[in-house]
Amino acid sequence: MKLFSFWRSLATYRVRIALNLKRLTPDEVIQVNLMKGEQRAAAYRAVNPMMAIPALVDGEPPALFESLAIIEYLDETHPNPPLLPRDPRGRARVRGLAQIVACDCHPLIVPRVREYLEHEFKLDEGARNKWCAHWHVAALAALEAHLNDKATGRYAHGDAVTLADICLASHAAGAQYYAVDTAPFPTFSRIVGELSAIDAFARAHPLKQPGAPAAL
Fold it and tell me: CATH number of 2-77: 3.40.50.150, 3.40.30.10, 3.40.50.2000, 3.40.50.1820?
């Protein structure tokens, strides 16, 4: 198993958590430095034409791509512990919470979007950071509202870790990147606090990865 990774990538953070929960260790981790534009190199474009990470090669190519698709693949091929509830309504809720992060917010703040804002619209770093913070807060507000539900337990859905929790953890890390205060979102903050004490989450944190700075 080969994982294409970068310490700062929130999407790869999600996949690392899933791998840890499944007790899977990639044979090789290949660093693709997004800040240096290595994702645009021809060699990586052959792996993932979208020029995004993560990508996962399990056995023979081609690579698997998109964090949620990779995580569901891992869940289907290594079913313990399960990352989706058994009931259809529960699975839909967990996927919905996950997609608020991975599909509604995260795509708006990735490097290619920030670079486009800089080069096409001439937004300076402060304006770009304000853009990223805005979308983080919008997602936090939606998540908090959805988490104020009887289906929420110790974690985002009941008392077992699910795909939703993986995405909540990545959103919390992204909030750190852009100095977003999560205190006004108490249920979100409580759950993230619970998750941070789980080894599979702690080991996967961006600041624990090769090449990461000591602090943001």
Answer: 3.40.30.10
What pLDDT digit, counting tens, does each position of 51-86 carry?
Answer: 999 999 999 999 999 999 999 999 999 999 999 999
Q: Which H, E and C letters describe the chain, residue by residue?
A: CEEEECCCCHHHHHHHHHHHHCCCCCCEEEECCHHHCHHHCHHHHHHCCCCCCCEEECCCCCCEECHHHHHHHHHHHCCCCCCCCCCHHHHHHHHHHHHHHHHHHHHHCCHHHHHHHHHHHCCCHHHHHHHHHHHHHHHHHHHHHHHCCCCECCCCCECCCCHHHHHHHHHHHHHHHCCCCCCCCHHHHHHHHHHHCCHHHHHHCHHHCCCCCCCC
| pLDDT tens for each residue of 120-169 | 999 999 999 999 999 999 999 999 999 999 999 999 999 999 999 999 99
